[in-house]
Amino acid sequence: MFRCPFCGAMARTRTSRRLSDHTIRQYHQCQNLECSESFTTLNAFERRVSSRDAPAMLPPAAGD
After folding, report:
1. CA 53 to each of CA 11, 46, 58, 59: distance values in angstroms, whole numbers, following the listed order
2. Beta partners for residue 38, in sequence order
3. Which positions fall inside the Zinc finger Ogr/Delta-type domain (predicted)?
4. Contact at 8 Å (CB) between 11 and 1?
C-alpha cells in the first residue's frame, strides 16, 4: 500500500511493470472515493545494506 500524494488516503497497487532488472513502475489508485486519483511510482534497487562473505549453500531438496 502507498499513500495518495493528493489526499493522503491509502492507495492500492493495481499493477506493475518491470522496467529493468532493478526498477519497477507501479500503478496505484486512491481508495478515497472522493479523490480516486490514479498515479504511478518507481520502485528501484538503491544499494546493498549488508553483504555475506560467501553465499550459503542450500541443502538438497528432500527426495533428491
Report:
1. 40, 20, 15, 19
2. 29
3. 3-47
4. yes
Query: Quick one: pLDDT at residue 64?
Result: 59
The predicted-structure confidence for 36-57, as pLDDT tens digits, reads as follows 999 999 999 999 888 877 777 8
Domain spans of the chain? 2-44
pLDDT score recorded for residue 40 = 98
- Residue entry with cell 545494506: 49
Q: Are 37 and 31 in contact (CB under 8 A)?
A: no
Would you mind telling me the total number of residues written for the chain in this entry? 64
Which three three-digit cell numbers place residue 46? 538503491
Question: Measured between alpha carbons, how far apart are the two ends of the chain, in Å?
Answer: 40
- Give the number of other Cβ atoms within 10 Å of residue 28's Cβ: 22
